[in-house]
Amino acid sequence: MERKLMMGSPSAGGDAAGTLVEALAALLPAGAGVALAWADGTGAVEQVAAGTPGEALLLRAAERAAGGKLDAAGARGLDLVWEDEALRVVVMSDAGADVPAGIAARWQRLAPGLIETFVRAERASGQVRALRKSEQLQQALYEISDLSGSQLEMDEMLARIHAVVGSLMWAANFYIVLHDGDRQVLRFLYFVDQFDPWQYDPGEEIKLDRLPASLTVALLRDGRAHRGSSISVRKALQVPHDPSQGPDSAAWLGVPMRRDGVVGGAIVVQNYDHAYSYSDEDRALLEYVAQHILTAVDRRQAREELERRVDERTLELQRANAVLQAEIDERQRSERLQRVLFRISELSVTAASLERFYADVHGLVDGLLYARNFYVATLSPDGERIEFPYSVDERDPVRSSRGLTKGLTEYVIRCGTALLADREAISRLETTGELVNRGALSHSWLGVPLELDGIVVGVIAVQSHSPDIHFEQRDQELLTFIAQHIGSALSRKRAQDSLRAAHAELEFRVEARTRELREANRELRAQVGERMRAEQRLLDQARHDDLTGLPNRAHLLEKLDAAITHMHEPGSIPFSVLFMDLDRFKLVNDSAGHAAGDDMLIEAGRRVRRALNANDTVARLGGDEFAVLLENVATTDAAESVAARLLRELSRPVWIAGRELFPSASIGISVWQPRYRYGEEMIRDADAAMYRAKERGRARSAVFDEAMRAEATRLLDLEADLRRAINTDAFEPWFQPIVRLATGEVAGYEALLRWNHEIRGVLLPADFIGVGEDSGLIEQVDWLLYQHVARQLRLLPSGYVSINVSPRHFHSDDFAERLLALLDGEGVDPGRLRIEITEVALLDDAPRALRTLNTLGERGVVALLDDFGTGFSALSYLHRFPIQSLKIDQSFVAGLDGEARTESLALVRAILALAGTIGIQTIAEGVETPRQQEVLLQLGCQFGQGFLFGRPAPLGEGAGGVSDRLRAAADQDGFSAVGT
């Protein structure tokens, strides 16, 4: 049994119990033995003390009584049982029955008080010790928290934490491991052991599979705390013994550290001394401390990771700053060079003399590189001497003209290339005999050739007499570049000097021609003035409309962008934009001619200008479209009021080309909102509002509102969806049968486009064809459809399939070749494919359409004319183009059994008669009732298509796909569907 008093530590409880036994024995006669035992509320004996340790029987009797084997009624005269709710104390004596009555009475009176005093004292002492231990634990946690935020290195911090744990329990052998369950690795973060010499590496990750006999690995996998000897813990965790894992310990305690419920590591303490073992209290204490240690380690690692990232980011920023600074330096250097070159070019004109020119050039070069010692050397006109028109040098103040030698200057002229040399390089050239240095020997010398018209005529040189100053390759490149411009400037300078000489020689002639030259000068000034006026006119033309003289689109956009920028300033007043389009303007052009249309546009511009304020701007955007910027018009009501005034002004009659016309316009309005960033956006919204006004009947205005914005957003979203659908090929053909009206036999199918939208489901062409046409994406969609049709055409044993071809495709020269290549690639007979076209496709570019149809017809692909009767219905193209069939529009077929039956009968009879005359087939579209089928048969129509014979469906729908649906429809209508 454990020697442990519930209200104090073992040693404290033992000493106090011994004192109590001695006090109780003093109340009895000499030689009497006393045994003391107590138990907690559960009846378990906690402590036994005896005044006569040799009397084992008395001691065991007290133990049994404390354990509940003897109650107060069964006690002997000098035996006592004292108890309360939490404690039972038994005192037994071996004093005989002959104890004097006075001593027995004193015993019965004083012994219970001594026991009660003992219990109270021990409980108070236990509370004090518990409080001290709690304070000790709290102080330890504070120290751990402080250590996590300190600037100590990780090893030092963990050593301090080790010391803190050692203040709470025996922890001379202590280690911490971190665990990564996803990667199945662990890392020894800290390891101290008195007998295990293993050296750990905090950065080394160890695979768990490498430690099959490790108690630590077993603890991490089990996820629970374990204590006991190494042997007992190994047995509990079913771990085999492996001496390489370190010596066995007499007491081993390991607790897991959890992070969000997941084991993130463990702390282990162990003791090799058999005199000490860890208790459940030590386990609970270490578990509590472990979580705070894990928090401290995580906080420290997070801080170190943050510091590492900050250092990396700082280094990146420093590198970027260095690169940026280098770019800035290079740009500033380029700007200085540009200014120098410009100044050199200017000096070639303004310098009073060549010497002054060289002096000024020297000053400019000195601003770019070290040029304290600078000279210009040139060949004499006969090429036999070297002259120095300009020279500044610290050691050679005067350079006289000399004959050609083997100096550095002559070397550059002779080689025709720049020379950058230090003393060592100069010495090597002297050793080889290529040059003989003249004058003071420089530490660094740089000379570049000076060329005139591609011929080397001299040298520009700089040199350094100081060992601290050396020229570099970039200085050579810079001086070479400058020399090229100096050469050009010298060419101009020499030309000017030559001109002056020529003027001097011809001075006596100048006077005679002075009058003529003055006149020429006046003419030149006149030409310059005219040119300036022409440039101004060109500028005005670039910003104004040629016809009306009003500002154009570019001019208006500049003002709009400036107005939007101004709106971000305090106190700014919003503005509005009107977009105006003349109604039925094309009719004026077609009836009265373009000249009359131009007159109307000019008059419309005048009227709009007269109806506006002076600070408003009206611009012609092109055609019959005008736009107005209304300054300081902040509300829709004010903008609509201006629009109403413009409509009234425009509606007044005007005489053009001898006719009285009554113009009108539709106006769209957009009022500035914070969402606008560019003027083009306001014009776009006003344009959209203008189209809304036209839809409502023209000659009115409409304001762009959120509904229009939502519709525009919807169209943008639909366009984005359409682009994604093209990338994912979310389109498929649905097939509708074309049957012989007399027998119900399926002759072919029309492939109809369907879009499998990821959110809205199956969409019909009417839902997206407008967006596809406007964005130009419909051609890509068509080709995806054609590819599906060509692939699925192989699954149809017989019959043809017709596809709809937009007029856009007939604008392409290679449409026919591309379509035939698609069919050949799928191994499909071109004779089983037909194309459905409209009259617009034929009439838009008749020669190209004829070439396309002939190319397709040569391979068996024939054309069907769709929606016949709704367009021009011209007879000429039926003879000119290879058309096999006419498709009678469903609007005529629908009237065969409706209120307009008479008119529909007449139109259909005429179409059938026309088709019969030229020998082409007819297909009635939209046949939905047996009555329509009957009338069409009576009129002589051969083929039909519509819901009566089958709705469009995917090829593979249901068990039999389209074929089964056709047979079911045929059986229901009383005839048999043949083929697929």
Structural summary, described in words:
- The protein is α+β, with helices and mostly antiparallel strands and 980 residues long.
- Helices cover 49% and strands 20% of the residues.
- The strands form six sheets. The protein has an eight-stranded mixed barrel with strand order 24-25-27-28-29-30-31-32, surrounded by four helices. It has a six-stranded antiparallel beta sheet with strand order 7-6-5-10-9-8, sandwiched between helices.
- Helix 3 (101-148) packs parallel to helix 7 (280-350), helix 14 crosses helix 15 (594-610) and helix 20 runs parallel beside helix 21 (815-826).
- The longest helix has 71 residues, at 280-350.
List the strand order in the largest sheet.
24-25-27-28-29-30-31-32
Main sheet overview: 8 strands, mixed, barrel
Please report the distance between the alpha carbons of the first and last residues: 96 Å
Provide a count of the helices.
28
The coarse silhouette is flat
Mean pLDDT: 81
Total beta strands: 33
Rg measurement, Å: 54 Å
Q: What is the SS-derived class?
A: alpha+beta
Approximately what portion of the residues adopt beta-strand conformation?
15-25%
Instruction: Tell me roughly what share of residues is in helical segments.
Output: 40-55%
- Poorly predicted parts: 1-13, 71-75, 958-980
